[in-house]
């Protein structure tokens, strides 16, 4: 996922603690294979991540 605001890729802050744990931040200039996913919208208008096939 890439931000339209700053043209950077979104990363998850897995090693942060507290309220910042798992925070999504657009801060990376490239995305590794493990950081790529597809968002699917369901009938409740929530997004579900999935690995690309």
Task: Give your account of this protein's structure.
This protein has no helices and four strands. With 53 residues, the chain is mainly beta. The chain has one domain (9-50). Strands 1-2 form a two-stranded antiparallel sheet. A two-stranded antiparallel sheet has the order 3-4. The radius of gyration is 12 Å and the shape is globular. It starts with 8 loop residues before the first strand and ends with a strand. The model has no long low-confidence stretch (mean pLDDT 78).
Name the descriptors:
two-stranded antiparallel ribbon; mainly beta; 53 residues
Task: Enumerate the spans where pLDDT stays under 50 for 5 or more consecutive residues.
Answer: none
Order of helices and strands: EEEE
Mean pLDDT: 78
Number of E-state strands: 4
Number of domains: 1
Largest sheet: 2 strands, antiparallel
Looking across the biggest beta sheet, what order are the strands in? 1-2
Coarse morphology: globular
User: DSSP helix count?
Assistant: 0
Helix content: under 10%
Strand content: 35-45%
Structural class: mainly beta
Report, as a whole number of angstroms, the end-to-end distance: 16 Å
Radius of gyration: 12 Å
Quick summary:
By secondary structure, the chain is mainly beta. It has one domain. A hairpin with a 5-residue loop joins strand 3 and strand 4.
What's the structural blueprint in terms of helices and strands?
Layout lengths: L8 E5 L9 E6 L9 E4 L5 E4 L3
Antiparallel strand pairs: 1-2, 3-4
């Amino acid at each position: 996922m890439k931000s339209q605001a700053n043209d950077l890729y979104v990363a998850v802050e897995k090693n942060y603690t507290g309220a910042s744990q798992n925070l999504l931040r657009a801060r990376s200039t490239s995305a590794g294979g493990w950081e790529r996913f597809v968002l699917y919208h369901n009938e409740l208008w929530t997004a579900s991540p999935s690995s690309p096939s």
